[in-house]
From TrEMBL:
<protein>
    <recommendedName>
        <fullName>OmpA-like domain-containing protein</fullName>
    </recommendedName>
</protein>
<dbReference type="Pfam" id="PF00691">
    <property type="entry name" value="OmpA"/>
</dbReference>
<feature type="domain" description="OmpA-like">
    <location>
        <begin position="541"/>
        <end position="666"/>
    </location>
</feature>
<feature type="signal peptide">
    <location>
        <begin position="1"/>
        <end position="18"/>
    </location>
</feature>
<keyword id="KW-0732">Signal</keyword>
<keyword id="KW-0472">Membrane</keyword>
<dbReference type="InterPro" id="IPR006665">
    <property type="entry name" value="OmpA-like"/>
</dbReference>
<dbReference type="InterPro" id="IPR011990">
    <property type="entry name" value="TPR-like_helical_dom_sf"/>
</dbReference>
<feature type="compositionally biased region" description="Basic and acidic residues">
    <location>
        <begin position="648"/>
        <end position="666"/>
    </location>
</feature>
<dbReference type="InterPro" id="IPR011042">
    <property type="entry name" value="6-blade_b-propeller_TolB-like"/>
</dbReference>
<dbReference type="InterPro" id="IPR008969">
    <property type="entry name" value="CarboxyPept-like_regulatory"/>
</dbReference>
<dbReference type="GO" id="GO:0009279">
    <property type="term" value="C:cell outer membrane"/>
</dbReference>
<dbReference type="InterPro" id="IPR036737">
    <property type="entry name" value="OmpA-like_sf"/>
</dbReference>
<dbReference type="InterPro" id="IPR050330">
    <property type="entry name" value="Bact_OuterMem_StrucFunc"/>
</dbReference>
<dbReference type="InterPro" id="IPR019734">
    <property type="entry name" value="TPR_rpt"/>
</dbReference>
<feature type="region of interest" description="Disordered">
    <location>
        <begin position="641"/>
        <end position="666"/>
    </location>
</feature>
<dbReference type="Pfam" id="PF07676">
    <property type="entry name" value="PD40"/>
</dbReference>
Length: 666
């Protein structure tokens, strides 16, 4: 870490411009206290004399501290470095945060012990997953009793998850929307209705020469600065969004003074809009406005079913059948910080009581920005409460607002190592739409188009004997996402869709047929475009009925298998592997040459050779039985009568010298 200590140019005292440094720090501290982190970071850099081309730093007064004043200088230096790192992280500039936390983790003052956790978090956000894992583990070792240890453990799992996910990207196209929509500031929460595109933006607005007085909690005026021009509001754009001359304008709604607005959602007819509103140091609330002709009514709060001065309600979403309003809130009765809730929308537009989505969806952390499709019954939402890439990730669950499947992470590149939220669909099935993400930004959410694609795995399943389509067979596709199951119809066709090219296993099974397993490695899937079509067949059997293994031979007068015979027995290995509960008997038969006793003993030894060979290939002995039948069960005459005389029948004896197997347990 010695090199890191020489990373920044620092001068807090003992320099000609010391007075200016102190002033800059006070300004920075005031902005930091007022949560204006971008401004705070700017002034901390001025206080620390960090410029764009700074490449080295010198700690004040070298190695030795000479007085209490020197201690105060170092204390101010360390506090400013830490707050600069915090400011950078809190306005989502993780590259900068990583640099300054890397210095802060060398400080011995326990006040800065959490710097190591946030350093690891910054590494994760910057996709340095292995380094992040090491840093999180160091934090856990150094701070075993800290409340952040649980978060660090989850972050480690998330980093491992991200490493694996990025090996097998999902089949999703993600495209950043053009600059005329992605302007300065944050641009997020997109929705398209009636060929008009709506979104939230904090793009700068004209504030003239207005001044804001930034104060501490004690009320002392510390900074006089220009009014913040980055105000969240609702905007719209018509026509092709890829055109260079797209006109972007504010929605013509008469919002109250000093109110910020975000995250609009419309009823299906487009005549009612819900959105999030807030003022400085007030709770978030959901308001609505109604459209008559071309005019929007003044916005009104939706009511106490949703809003309260004691908690936040935000990010409304109206289902495309107009029946439910979904939202995120930290209201009482939840499972964590912000939970997902829903209300019924009555015919008169009033709302029913809020209902929590329950523990299948909500965690002890944040759930945000819900989207629900009544047609597919799929819920998409963002959360930082589950193992993912870190930050807010998209998850998907299937259900009916009462019962839900276990939420699944939508993977890379739908998700990134930063925040990803506000999905909205542009087609009925939710395969195309928009998202908001800061994956390519140093500070702010931006708008992206997304299109889900898939790979079809399909084919025809037949009866190996009759060659006819096999109905009623169970086909299971398994990959890292879990199993999918279908039953073939009368046409014998099987078909699955997957959204990544992770290795796949197909299992085909039907009563009284040998199940088979087929594996598709990544290399094979990677060559495919959108379809892999392969036909397979299943072989029938009957319990307890023997089936001959042709061409199983032994050395003369011996029970030792020949090499070609071993290859024939290899045929049984995949059958046994694909049917793990099945047990079989290997039976050996002789012709009538030799005594009964000798033939019985020889056949027993030969049958045992077969089971021994299969055991050597990994088949459990408990699933194998060997039995010799000697010459007691011929399937062809050993002798034939020609002109009333018995004559040897070599062809018949050859058929009787056989090895069979039969299924004794399925």
């Amino acid at each position: 870490m010695k090199k890191i200590l020489l990373f920044l140019l620092v001068a807090f005292g003992g320099f000609a411009n010391a007075q200016y440094v102190v002033n800059y720090k006070k300004v920075a501290d005031t902005y930091f206290e007022n949560k204006d982190y971008y401004a705070a970071s700017t002034f901390y850099k001025k206080a620390l004399k960090i410029t764009g081309d700074s490449s080295q730093a010198i700690l004040p007064y070298g190695k030795e501290r000479k007085s209490a004043t020197d201690d105060k200088v170092v204390e101010d230096y360390e506090g400013s470095i830490y707050n600069l790192a915090e400011s950078s992280r809190l306005y989502r500039e993780f590259n900068e945060a990583e640099k300054y936390y890397a210095i802060a983790i060398t400080f011995t003052n326990t006040r800065f012990r959490k710097a190591l956790f946030y350093y690891a978090e910054s590494l994760r956000a910057n996709k340095k997953f292995n380094l992040a894992i090491d840093a999180f583990q160091q934090f856990i070792q150094k701070n075993p009793g800290d409340a952040l240890v649980k978060d660090a453990q989850k972050e480690i799992e998330s980093c491992k998850f991200a490493i694996e996910e990025m090996r097998f990207p999902r089949m999703v196209q993600v495209k950043k929307m053009p600059a005329n929509v992605n302007g300065l500031g944050s641009n997020y929460a997109p929705v398209k209705i009636n060929n008009e595109f709506y979104f939230t933006s904090s793009r700068p607005v004209a504030v003239g020469g207005k001044k804001d007085m930034v104060k501490t909690d004690a009320g002392e005026v510390q900074v006089s600065t220009k009014t913040n021009p980055f105000i969240n509001n609702l905007y719209s754009a018509k026509g092709e969004l890829t055109a260079t001359d797209v006109a972007v304008k504010k929605i013509d709604i008469n919002f109250p003074k000093n109110m910020e607005i975000a995250a609009a959602s419309f009823t299906p007819d487009g005549n009612t809009v819900y959105f999030t509103t807030w003022r400085d140091k007030e709770k978030y609330a959901i308001y609505s406005s109604k459209k008559t002709g071309d005019k929007w009514s003044d916005p009104q709060p939706v009511g106490l079913q949703v809003n309260s001065k004691d908690f936040n309600s935000s990010q409304p979403f109206v289902t495309n059948d107009g029946k439910f309003l979904l939202f995120s809130s930290d209201r009482s009765g939840g499972y964590g910080k912000f939970d997902l809730w829903y209300c019924a929308v009555r015919e008169d537009g009033s709302l029913g009581q809020a209902v929590n989505f329950g523990p299948a969806i909500n965690t002890e952390d944040d759930e945000r920005a819900p989207y629900y499709n009544p047609l597919t019954k799929k819920l998409l939402f963002s959360t930082d409460g589950r193992v993912g890439f870190g930050g807010l990730d998209f998850f998907e669950s299937e259900g009916d607002l009462v019962n839900w499947s276990s939420p699944k992470n939508l993977g890379y590149p739908f998700n990134s190592s930063k925040d990803d939220l506000y999905f909205t669909a542009t087609d009925d099935k939710g395969t195309k739409g928009y998202i908001s993400s800061d994956r390519e930004s140093s500070c702010c959410l931006e708008l992206f188009e997304v299109k889900k694609e898939s790979l079809s795995i399909a084919g025809l399943l037949t009866d190996c004997k009759t060659k006819l389509p096999l109905a009623g067979a169970n086909v299971t596709l398994t990959n890292a996402e879990g199993p999918q199951k279908i039953t073939t119809g009368t046409d014998g066709i099987y078909r699955f869709k997957v959204d990544s090219k992770r290795p796949i296993k197909l299992l085909f099974a039907k009563d009284n047929y040998f199940a088979i397993t087929k594996n598709y490695p990544y290399e094979e899937l990677a060559k495919a475009d959108t379809l892999i079509y392969k036909d397979y067949c299943l072989s029938p059997f009957k319990l307890g009925i023997p089936m001959a293994l042709d061409n199983v031979y032994y050395e003369f007068n011996s029970a030792e298998l020949t090499e070609p015979s071993k290859k024939v027995l290899d045929f049984l290995i995949p059958i046994m592997e694909d049917n793990p509960e099945m047990e079989i008997e290997l039976g050996s038969h002789t012709d009538n040459i030799g005594t009964d006793e000798y033939n019985l003993d020889l056949s027993n030894r030969r049958a045992k050779s077969c089971t021994d060979y299969l055991e050597s290939k990994g088949i459990a002995a408990a699933r194998l039985t060997s039995k010799g039948y000697g010459e007691s069960m011929p399937i062809a005459p050993n002798e034939i009568v020609v002109k009333r005389k018995k004559k040897d029948n070599p062809e018949g004896r050859a058929k009787n010298r056989r090895t069979e197997f039969k299924v004794t347990k399925k």
